[in-house]
Design a protein that fits this description.
four-stranded antiparallel sheet, 19 strands, about 20% helix, alpha+beta, Rossmann fold, about 325 residues, 2 domains, Methylamine Dehydrogenase, Chain H
Length: about 325
């Protein structure tokens, strides 16, 4: 379910997931009711354990009865494992996600979008069909004008999603991190893969190159950050101390890195492979940035805030809220 929630969030869907929302001290039932009330779509993940849970049965009943026609507020059952569906669920078309197929995820993503985003013209009255057919087409560049961008080459080799990509300071090569647990170094002149860096036991969420172009830093969902020699393609060291890592950025001095994930920011000494400082956050950290002087950092939080931090003191200087 966590993988599914993360994939939906990456695809641009705003997701309510209990592990991300319910904090220590919260009344769980009230938080769940709040989530159900403000959600337009409820995805019910079905497994034998879920069907045996009284708590899940209560949530299921609430969701089914809040919109019996399943029109305005969608209820989507997803099958995660083999089980016998009760009568209350058997009437709904479920998505088979036992193999976590791309087709099933695509169908779920379509169902999670507002109805106006995926109305099928085949289900519209004839008058509406004609209106849809007459919608103006997007403007295109006049014939003979220069295109805004030209595809030069494709860099192919990863067998999973490419989660992050970064270009070297000299612009000659790039590094990418993928869902296939690897980091690849690419020659941008010919599009060839120079080498594949293996070692992570989970999908690589973020890659970074130090400003001097000598090291690659990669962050994995498998609780580790690894440092690689960019020239030799060899692992130099590992950094531990996270339940999850979502972002990592190198400092301008080439000696430190800032990572974000969970409820904290961590500043690392790349030479000693040790934690210099840990800064607690009140929300899940999804992105990080460091200024050119290396004395301030930004953290992007799950709740929409961007916080400005003083690196030396660890104090939050300016909170910002984005809409």
């Amino acid at each position: 379910m966590r993988r599914l929630a993360e994939r939906l969030q990456v695809a641009g869907v705003r997701v309510w997931f209990d592990d991300w929302v319910v904090k220590a001290g919260d009344i769980i039932a009230l938080k769940v009711d709040e989530g159900l009330e403000h959600s337009r779509v409820l995805v019910l993940c079905i497994s034998p354990a879920a069907l045996a849970s009284g708590w899940v049965a209560l949530e299921r009943s609430t969701a089914v009865h809040r919109d019996p026609s399943n029109a305005g507020r969608r209820f989507i059952p997803i099958l995660l494992a083999d089980c016998d569906l009760p009568d209350t669920l058997a009437k709904y078309k479920y998505l088979d996600f036992r193999e976590e197929s791309e087709a099933a995820f695509a169908e779920l993503l379509t169902s999670c979008k507002p109805e106006t985003d995926f109305l099928l013209t085949s289900s519209l009255p004839e008058v509406q069909k004609r209106i849809v057919a007459k919608k103006p087409k997007p403007e295109t560049s006049p014939k003979g004008s220069e295109p805004m961008a030209v595809l030069e080459r494709k860099l192919e080799g990863h067998t999973g999603w490419v989660r992050s990509v970064v270009v070297s300071p000299n612009g000659q090569w790039a590094a990418s991190g993928s869902h296939d647990n690897t980091v690849r170094i690419w020659d941008l002149q010919n599009g060839e893969c120079r080498t594949t860096l293996k070692g992570h036991n989970g999908d690589v969420r973020f890659v970074e190159i130090t400003p001097d172009g000598q090291r690659i830093i990669s962050a994995s969902i498998h609780k580790t950050i690894r440092i690689w020699d960019a020239n030799l393609g060899k692992e130099l060291s590992k950094l531990f101390g996270y339940t999850q890592v979502r972002s990592v950025v190198a400092f301008p001095d080439n000696e430190r890195a800032l990572s974000g994930g969970g409820l904290k920011l961590t500043i690392w000494d790349l030479a000693l492979c040790s934690c210099i400082k840990s800064i607690k956050c009140v929300e899940q950290v999804w992105s990080t940035a460091v200024n050119r002087l290396g004395n301030q950092a930004l953290s992007g939080l799950q709740d929409g805030r961007i916080l400005l931090w003083d690196i030396e003191s660890g104090d939050c200087l300016v909170p910002r809220m984005v809409s």
